[in-house]
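The authors assume throughout that readers already know how a fold can be written as discrete tokens. What matters is that the chain and its backbone geometry are given together, residue for residue. A single example would do more here than another paragraph of explanation. For illustration, here is how one protein appears when written out as sequence plus structure tokens.
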Amino acid sequence: MTDSLSLTFTLTMDDIVAWSQHHYAHSALCKRAFWIWRIVLCAIMFPAIVAITARDAAGITIALLGTGVYYFIFPRFYWRALAKHVKKAYAEGKNKGMSGEHRLTIGDDGIASSSEVGEGKIGWAGIERIVEIPGYTFVYFGALAAAVIPEQRIVEGEYHAFMAELKRRWEAAQKEQAT
């Protein structure tokens, strides 16, 4: 048995929103839905604006400008709406243990997680991927399940040493599974 390495951090709703936004921005399904909505709404807007305005060159120009403006501002509204919906969705339940202090401990057989409401453990084979972005690391256990580790809210432990060991052990386990 080797020594374990732990990291304690505080998770906030902003961190959960950051993970959701990252997931939506990188999920093939979510990216496709984003583009479909963006294009479909523009396709609906153009004829609607033409029908409301005059059907002459001025009306078509207004429709093109209106649709163009919408096309370029849609992402800003989309990401704001996503953050708002994530916060509302989490507000529907008690979600004890989602925010607050969390502790992850790396062991020989996987990662142990604990918070004020309980603890759990997942083996190295249960980790699908590890994603690092500025300020965060996301340890995915499934398509829609991840441990969110906010670099700026570390209470105890060394973030970079923890991440290096986490990746080293996970990659070793991946190689072992492949053989």
Observations:
- The first strand starts at residue 5 and ends at 11.
- Residues 57-91 form the longest helix (35 residues).
- Helices lie at 13-26, 28-52, 57-91, 159-178.
- Residues 49 and 63 are 5 Å apart (CA to CA).
